Amino acid sequence: MHLPCNGRCCAVGVGKEILRSVQAVPERIEATGMPKRQRSGFVCREFRLGSTCLQIHCRFSASRPWLPFPDSVTGCAVAQWLRDTAFALVRRFGTCQLSRVLDALQRRRTGRSIRGEKMRYHTPSCFEDASAIAAAATGVTRFLAGGTDVLVQLRSDLVTPDDLIDIKQIAGVRDITRRDDGGWRIGAAVSGAELAEHEALIAEWPGVVEALELIGSTQIQARCTLTGNLCNGSPAADSVPAMIAAGATVSVVGPEGAREIAVEDVPAGPGMTSLRLGEVVSAVNLPPRGEGGGDAYLRFIPRTEMDIAVVGAGVSLSREGETVTAARVALGAVAPTVLLVEEAGAALTGSTLDDTALAELARAAEAACRPISDKRGTVEFRTHVAGVLARRAARIAYDRAGA
Ligand SMILES: Cc1cc2nc3c(=O)[nH]c(=O)nc-3n(C[C@H](O)[C@H](O)[C@H](O)COP(=O)(O)OP(=O)(O)OC[C@H]3O[C@@H](n4cnc5c(N)ncnc54)[C@H](O)[C@@H]3O)c2cc1C
Predict the structure, then answer these.
(1) Whether residue 299 has its Cβ less than 6 Å from ligand 1
(2) Strands of 141-144's sheet, edge to edge?
(3) Domain chopping of the chain, boundaries
(4) Distance from the CA of 120 to the center of ligand 1, in angstroms?
(5) Domain 120-166 has CATH 3.30.43
(6) In the CATH scheme, what architecture does the domain 294-403 have?
(7) What DSSP string runs through 290-320?
(8) Ligand 1 centroid, distance to 281 Cα (angstroms)
(9) Which pLDDT tens digit goes with each residue over 360-378?
(10) Ligand 1 centroid vs 298 CA: distance in angstroms?
(11) Per-residue pLDDT tens for 13-31?
């Protein structure tokens, strides 16, 4: 049986323990039921081995080549089949999640990847070189900004890069500079702590700064970056709704030159971005704030800190007198990617942030939500909280704009 898949195709072992047990037990593994189309856009098929469940995922796309997707796998061939699949995926698409697990096991045993290579650590001195290294790489590649996602993933065997490209030796990468248009350019390795000390930036974009400041602990603040938070591709990334609400863009350097992309166009799904092969973000750009502008970011977490947003809401608006003249609203953790909710911004524009406008804002925010239910919150809870947080963040942004 075959399913179509695109370049993001991957096979997922539920964990390395499971793969170990799969390798040890010579049984036939039958697929349980038919492939299921998931909300994320992936097609998933489950195979059971005793109490172990192995899920194979691939992303559905009619325009891409076909990937073998068997009905069952037999006996001792199981481990070999898993390996072959991983090899095939790595050869074909550069990466797959099953390969990362096999990679981790192989590296533990031999110090080399499943393709027989050691990890290469690069310290390019310009973004063009960083891009060229990434473009030429054939295995798993990661850029290293603060490393608070990458190093954790590496240490827990979630990612085992063949090429790790540290961007921190590049000149200007930790600079915050005023742009010619009056906006800001924030280098790709500027940390949360550095941003939080920049008074002029805080005065203009307090919402963006407070969103990055929410991340982790003091230690994490010393490293975490806006760029890494965005490029890690988490739908719950805290600074991303704030950046989207602010109308931020990223400067990108790639094999075909430089370009500027709106932040909302970067996330492409959980753990995925729209960046092309070899593209590296050199900076985050914030537009000129102008008179009468304010922004805010709020998140809901079950704990008081050090937690992943169950819902996040960023609002940026401008006002003339009492009237809102423009507004942007973005929501995090309520869909596979952070959402720009244009209807929510439109609900505020032209209003004086009266109850009717706030109710309309909440309704638009709730309507945009496509969350999952998990142990952190149900669909209904997340949807409701999105409306509540959007209203509260709008109120704060409005007051800041009038201050
Ligand atoms: C204890 C702890 C608490 C945390 N709390 C939070 C939290 O509350 N909220 C939250 O949102 N996150 C949290 N995080 C996650 C993490 O700190 C953030 O996502 C952080 O902003 C990542 O930035 P970084 O510079 O460290 O990214 P890195 O780890 O360096 O990189 C992350 C990803 O971005 C890619 N990347 C990095 N630089 C570039 C570039 N220039 N161009 C293209 N791609 C690039 C990398 O390849 C990688 O895939 C936490 C992490 C830890 C360990």
Answers:
(1) no
(2) 120-122, 163-166, 141-144
(3) 2-110, 120-166, 294-403
(4) 20
(5) yes
(6) 2-Layer Sandwich (3.30)
(7) -TTEEEEEEEE-SSSSSS--SEEEEEEEEEE
(8) 13
(9) 999 999 999 999 988 888 9
(10) 19
(11) 433 333 433 343 333 445 5
